[in-house]
Design a protein that fits this description.
Low-confidence stretches: none
Radius of gyration: 24 Å
Number of strands: 14
CATH class of the largest domain: Alpha Beta
Strand content: 15-25%
CATH superfamily of the largest domain: Spore Coat Polysaccharide Biosynthesis Protein SpsA, Chain A
Shape: elongated
Structural class: alpha/beta
Helix content: 25-40%
Mean pLDDT: 89
Order of helices and strands: EHEHEEHEEHHEEHEHEEHEEHHEH
Largest sheet: 7 strands, mixed
């Protein structure tokens, strides 16, 4: 058995209890199902590899029928049936089996988890092999249960992390949340503001998220295309405690603004009220999509307290994916709004000099 711990949260004590014929592979960042499954398949020593998605629960006698099905050389992929699903299809299976050598040669397509088995089945079929459902092999989907505690129950949260997103169920937003959970070692709360129906830009959801935060001592505002890395939070907290008003981490493996990389920044609770554009609105709502961070930067500079870069805190950032869209109507609205936001910024700060920061 090979368990791939794909940057999970709160499972250390459980995984530490596993021994015997169990290998535990850990990833330091979220890879997703396809890459994690491929990593596990590489370590497999058996002639057959069985993949199980998420926390699906195999029924008694589930494994042997999958192995028997592969005795037929015309079968390339054997899929379990899902308990309670009628009809069941191999493309939606929670567990599938393939010959190890063929699986490594075929490869596991790097698509979203819910599409991975279907994409693998298509590849197998393209090789001229059959994909079959095995009625004698049953598996139940993951149950509707609450995740385990990552901090002691009832402990007061230290930091609120506000993440605005156009789609809370997108792979990008889910990866961001998973990274926050995996790398934030203090008690924290995450406020997700899904503002995609209709899109509201950036400022209004950030302001709503800040208002929704409980009275935590610190607040972080983070784009949904940010991946915080291990140890990211303590250096930011230390810099705030040392007197900085607004702090931000170093972005690695990508574009970086050293004056103010506003895709992820932090401040103290009292700073929210002191630096707010207006009561209840931390950022200026007249700038909808863009330039609200430039407005904040300008105001901080006028106070003689510009944002502080904390290089010992590190993140990755998929530059501008937050507002990237293939929807022509949304794209046109964003482009027009950026122009309007720039004009609004220059009306508010007529002496400001806009330039691309290094």
């Amino acid at each position: 058995m090979v368990i791939v711990d794909d940057a999970s949260v709160g499972l250390d004590s459980l995984l530490a209890q596993l021994d015997g014929d169990v290998q535990v592979l850990r990833t330091d960042r979220r890879l997703g199902f396809a890459a994690a499954a491929a990593l596990g398949a590489e370590r497999a020593r058996g002639a057959i590899v069985v993949l199980v998605r998420a926390a699906a629960a195999p029924a008694p006698g589930w494994l042997a029928p999958l192995s028997v099905a592969l005795n037929d050389r015309s079968v390339g992929l054997a899929a379990s049936v899902t308990v309670g699903a009628t009809p069941t299809s191999p493309v939606a299976a929670w567990s599938v089996a393939a010959r190890a050598a063929e699986l490594r040669e075929t490869g596991i397509p790097e698509v979203a988890e819910q599409l991975a088995v279907g994409a693998l089945a298509l590849r197998v079929a393209e090789r001229g092999l059959r994909v079959v459902s095995i009625a004698a092999s049953a598996i139940a989907p993951p149950g509707a249960r609450t995740a385990g505690c990552r901090q002691p129950p009832g402990e007061a949260a230290e930091v609120t992390i506000v993440i605005p997103t156009l789609d809370a169920l997108s792979e990008r937003a889910r990866a961001c949340i998973a990274a926050v959970q995996a790398t934030t070692d203090v008690a924290h709360e995450i406020v997700i503001v899904d503002n995609g129906s209709p899109p509201q830009g950036f400022t209004r959801p950030v302001n709503a998220g800040v208002r929704a935060a409980q009275q935590t001592p610190y607040i972080v505002i983070m784009n949904d295309d940010v991946e915080p890395l291990a140890g990211w939070w303590p250096p930011l907290r230390a810099a705030i405690d040392a007197g900085a008003d607004v702090v931000f981490p170093l972005t690695i493996d990508g574009g970086m603004r050293r004056d103010f990389a506003a895709w992820c920044f932090a401040l103290a609770r009292d700073g929210v009220e002191r630096l707010a554009h207006a009561p209840g609105d931390f950022l200026d709502p007249s700038m909808v999509v863009w330039y609200q961070d430039t407005d904040l930067l300008h105001r901080l500079r006028e106070l003689g307290r510009p944002p502080v870069l904390v290089e010992t805190s590190q993140i990755r950032h998929a530059l501008s994916q937050t507002i990237a869209t293939e929807d022509p109507e949304l794209g046109a609205w964003i482009r027009a709004q950026v122009v309007a936001d720039r004009e609004q910024f220059l009306r508010k700060h007529p002496d400001a000099l806009l330039q691309v920061a290094a």
